[in-house]
């Protein structure tokens, strides 16, 4: 092993150590912020991107300085591209999004309060009515309320939920999905995990009437997955751009040295 190769190895080792120290610093900062957000929600997205970027950059440095044969270089490029694609696929959230299949709330198993119900016809008889439903899965993307007939006036639609960590509705954020007069669909996005129950309230004034069709969880499946696919493409291009920029820069420096 010549002196130049030893210097490259030292540079790579130094880069890896610096990356480890940086990761440790970020993890410490996120840990100190854990009271405002969950550790999982804060750390996972940042660390996944950081680890992916460091690994791809390290592989590019090794490819640039240690692989000399053409076959090895081609194999290295394929590995970097495939890893970039894998990281982009995983970090974009496509696997998690595909797992959130649309499902209708089984109203026969739901708990009602404050409504007088006749078939699909709902009449508010008490203040603060609600429909409460025990979740079969711990995560949902959204809640979509379908009315069989357009609502007669602007209507408040509130979505609340309980989680394992915060077992009361008041501890978790409320999601408002208000619906305008003449419309038939109310939609609210829910960003939470560990959900045990959801509570939906439409209407608040005694005497209001509605004809409910059904309530759907995880609606707009195709649109949600397509958004994640676009996100995956963006990450894929970003992960490839970093090695490409490094290779172009190192090649330019090498040309400059030859010129000098």
Helix and strand arrangement:
Layout (H helix, E strand, L loop, with lengths): L2 H30 L6 H28 L3 H23 L1 H6 L3 E2 L6 E3 L1 E4 L2 E4 L5 E5 L5 E8 L9 E7 L11 E2 L8 E8 L2 E8 L6 E9 L3 H39 L1
Antiparallel strand pairs: 1-11, 2-5, 3-4, 4-11, 5-10, 6-9, 6-11, 7-8, 7-10
Helix pairs in contact: 1-2, 2-3, 2-5, 3-5
Relevant terms:
260 residues, alpha+beta, elongated, 48% helix, 23% strand
What would you say this structure looks like, in words?
With 260 residues, the chain is α+β, with helices and mostly antiparallel strands. Helix content is 48%, strand content 23%. Strands 1, 3, 4, 6, 9 and 11 form a six-stranded antiparallel sheet that branches. Strands 2-5-10-7-8 form a five-stranded antiparallel sheet, with no helix packed on it. Strand 3 and strand 4 (121-124) form a beta hairpin. Helix 2 (39-66) runs antiparallel to helix 3. It is elongated. The relative contact order is 0.14. Mean pLDDT is 80; it is low at 32-40.
Low-confidence stretches: 32-40
| SSE pattern | HHHHEEEEEEEEEEEH
In helices, the fraction of residues equals 40-55%
- Give me the number of helical elements: 5
The structure class reads alpha+beta
Radius of gyration: 27 Å
Can you tell me the overall shape?
elongated
